[in-house]
Specification:
9 helices; mainly alpha
Length: 266
């Protein structure tokens, strides 16, 4: 029995020695790994960061308005012509309407004095010298003095209609441009889209998103240009119409004032 116990004790001691040796070896290997792995990872991260820093950053692509216009294609030519015509009409009509809307406060008083004094020729000369639309209306009315009042009023109204028609000269161009320029822009976009998809189909296996994206943004240039021209023409048209309405009110006021003058008792 004592021999068996001694044998078991020896086996236990031997096993304990082996386990201790394996544990010491594992600790040594773990220490070596822990000592080497951080250095390796640090070196790898440092190398990657250096590579990333060495790659130059892509420069931002700048595209001017003129270059965009050139990429719009042949549709940009009629749009450019329409924009130039609209700008010319607006400036020219603005100057004319500004002059027509200018009022001389002493004009009607002097006309009244001339008519009361019987100086009809002086009143006509004053109207010719003034040169405004309402002066031409008064001139027509003075030339009809002595006829029935209804004939005088009809002559003044007919002259007023002619004056308003002359003031509105060129406005149909603005209205047409406001409606037609966006349609031309859409036409250019459709043509550009057809060309873009044709290029994409022709590229075959070499096709990429760059081919399609480039064609699409070039096609959309005409839509932007058409909308810009159309919006400018629309605002210009409405502004000039409002100025013409102001001149019409001025002409109506001068007509009523002149008719009241003729209806005054002697």
């Amino acid at each position: 029995m004592s021999t068996l116990n001694s044998l078991i004790s020896q086996v236990f001691d031997a096993a304990t020695h082996v386990i201790s040796t394996v544990a010491n070896s594992a600790s040594t290997v773990t220490g070596i790994i822990q000592a080497q792995v951080p250095d390796t990872l640090t070196d790898t991260v440092t190398t990657t960061a250096e590579v990333v820093e060495s790659i130059p950053a892509p420069e931002p692509v700048e595209l001017s308005v003129w270059e965009l216009c050139l990429k719009g294609g042949f549709i940009m030519i009629p749009l450019a012509l329409l924009s130039i015509i609209c700008i010319y009409i607006f400036i020219e009509r603005y100057i004319v309407l500004r002059r027509a809307n200018r009022e001389d406060a002493s004009f009607m008083k002097r006309i009244k004095d001339y008519i009361h004094e019987g100086e009809i020729e002086s009143a006509k000369n004053l109207c010719k010298k003034n040169g405004s639309p309402y002066a031409r209306l008064i001139l027509k009315g003075i030339s009809r003095i002595g006829r029935p009042m209804n004939d005088v009023l009809v002559a003044i109204e007919n002259t007023g209609n002619l004056e308003i028609a002359n003031l509105g000269k060129g406005l149909p161009w603005l209205a047409t441009t406001a409606a037609g320029a966006p349609m031309l822009g859409f036409l250019g976009t459709v043509i550009g889209m057809v060309e873009a998809f044709f290029s994409l189909a022709s590229a075959g296996s070499a096709a990429n998103i760059g081919v399609l994206a480039g064609g699409i943004y070039e096609a959309l240039v005409t839509t932007v240009a058409g909308l810009v021209v159309g919006i400018i023409a629309l605002f210009a048209y409405n502004y000039l119409v409002s100025r013409i309405n102001g001149v019409m009110k001025l002409l109506e006021g001068k007509t009523m004032e002149f008719m009241d003058l003729l209806n005054e008792p002697a």
